[in-house]
Amino acid sequence: MDNLEIIPLQPAHLEEATQIHQQYLSPSWSLANFKETLECSRSCGFAAFIDKRIIGFIIGRTIDCEAEILTLVVSLQWQKCGIGNNLVRILLDTIRLRGGDRVFIEVNANNQIARKLYNKFDFRVISERPNYYPPIPGFSRTALVLEKIFL
């Protein structure tokens, strides 16, 4: 993809990011949630653009040597094109540069696409959180806690 650009997520991108998040994730974050998260010095995010349109983004946070991926979303038409891969890779690189030695994320137990993606980066299931998500027809309420340890 020649016209793919990944840059740090900026306040000017947050309205568009909120709309994408609300389209694909439930419960979704509000614009205020995004602003508050990005204002924290321990947080960072990256947005993927094609033709100056956000098609996906990722946000993470590092606290001392541990980090967590808070959210990742890619527009449906761009899924399975490597966008998620690129976003995860750049965030993991940033986490390592910030001194992180392990990364966590919660993933819905039946989200096979996300599980497959994180598996490529050597994330492993370390625990389950039953009733973590609100009841949504067709979705598990269980979150799997995944961990990646940098060697």
The third-level CATH topology is Aminopeptidase
Helical segment tally? 4
Radius of gyration: 15 Å
Which regions are unreliable across 5 or more consecutive residues at pLDDT < 50?
none
The CATH superfamily is Gcn5-related N-acetyltransferase (GNAT)
Taken together, the total number of domains comes to: 1
Descriptive terms for the model:
151 residues; alpha+beta; Aminopeptidase; seven-stranded mixed β-sheet; 7 strands
Structural overview:
The protein is an alpha+beta fold. The chain has one domain (4-149): Aminopeptidase. 29% of the residues lie in helices and 35% in strands. It contains four helices and seven strands, in the order E-H-H-E-E-E-H-E-H-E-E. It has helices at residues 14-24, 31-39, 83-97, 112-120, and strands at residues 4-8, 43-50, 53-63, 66-74, 102-108, 124-129, 143-149. The protein has a seven-stranded mixed beta sheet with strand order 1-2-3-4-5-7-6, sandwiched between helices. The longest helix is centred in the middle third of the chain and has 15 residues, at 83-97. The mean pLDDT is 91.
